[in-house]
Amino acid sequence: MHSSGLGPGILSNSMQPAVFLDRDNTLIANDGDLGDPDAVVLLEGVAEGLRRLDQAGYRLVVITNQGGVARGRYAEADVDAVHQRVQSLLGPPPALSFYYCPFHPKGTVSKYTREHPWRKPAPGMLLEAAEREHITLEASWMIGDQPRDAEAGLAAGCRAILLGDHDEPIDARVVRVETFTQAVELVLEREAER
Ligand SMILES: [Mg+2]
């Protein structure tokens, strides 16, 4: 459920901030159950934005619910193949690490049919990544297109940016922007103010 490139955070014991990134409709287009690496399409501004965050010293950590595994739509190996494709479209650099949650309480594959502390809005994947990769959560950000992404980020002690328009009430601590590029610029602006 986890894979990573050999970025500097892996090789060093020094603490580092991260930008945690939702995958579907934040980094890549996915309006269904994407399990085919050939169907991966990066969204506008993502390649450039990730390059800028990498150069600013952030670890880049993808945090994605993949309940399609629990629903039998694709296998964990397909998720890994999609992630390899994302990485190959981007570089490296920047090297990303990937965490996904294959569990869902309403699955059809019994092995994966349950609630799990990794499933957003729970913060389990962020906490696991922070421990493995020596990430300073309070200096880190979560960027995503769904309120559950922002909730997971706040629950982990990070700051959170939510993309796009949403009808439901959103925690006032969450910063709202329209585009991925705006989210990246916000992170870099706040970094400059520190
Ligand atoms: Mg999403």
Please give a quick description of this structure.
The protein is an alpha/beta fold and 194 residues long. 34% of the residues lie in helices and 16% in strands.
Structural classification: alpha/beta
Strand order in the largest sheet: 1-4-3-2-5-6-7
Could you say what the CATH topology is called?
A: Rossmann fold
CATH superfamily: HAD superfamily/HAD-like
Summarize the amount of helix as a percent range: 25-40%
Instruction: Spell out which ligands are present.
Output: magnesium ion
- Rg, nearest Å: 16 Å
Provide the CATH architecture. Answer: 3-Layer(aba) Sandwich
Q: For the terminal residues, how far apart are their CA atoms?
A: 34 Å
Report the portion of residues in β strands: 15-25%
Total strands: 7
Oligomer: single chain
Total count of domains = 1
* Elements, N to C (H/E): EHEHEHHEHEHEEH
In the predicted model, the low-confidence regions spanning at least 5 consecutive residues are: 6-10
Mean pLDDT: 94
| The CATH top-level class label | Alpha Beta
The best one-word shape is globular
Structure description:
- This protein has 194 residues and is of the alpha/beta class.
- It has a single domain, classed as HAD superfamily/HAD-like (Rossmann fold), CATH 3.40.50.
- Helix content is 34%, strand content 16%.
- It contains seven helices and seven strands, in the order E-H-E-H-E-H-H-E-H-E-H-E-E-H.
- It has helices at residues 8-11, 46-55, 67-70, 76-90, 124-133, 147-155, 180-193; strands spanning 2-4, 18-21, 59-65, 96-101, 141-144, 159-163, 175-177.
- Strands 1-4-3-2-5-6-7 form a seven-stranded mixed sheet, sandwiched between helices.
- Helix 6 (147-155) links the parallel strand 5 and strand 6.
- The longest helix is centred in the middle third of the chain and has 15 residues, at 76-90.
- It is globular, with a radius of gyration of 16 Å.
- The model is unreliable at 6-10 (pLDDT under 50).
- The structure holds magnesium ion (MG).
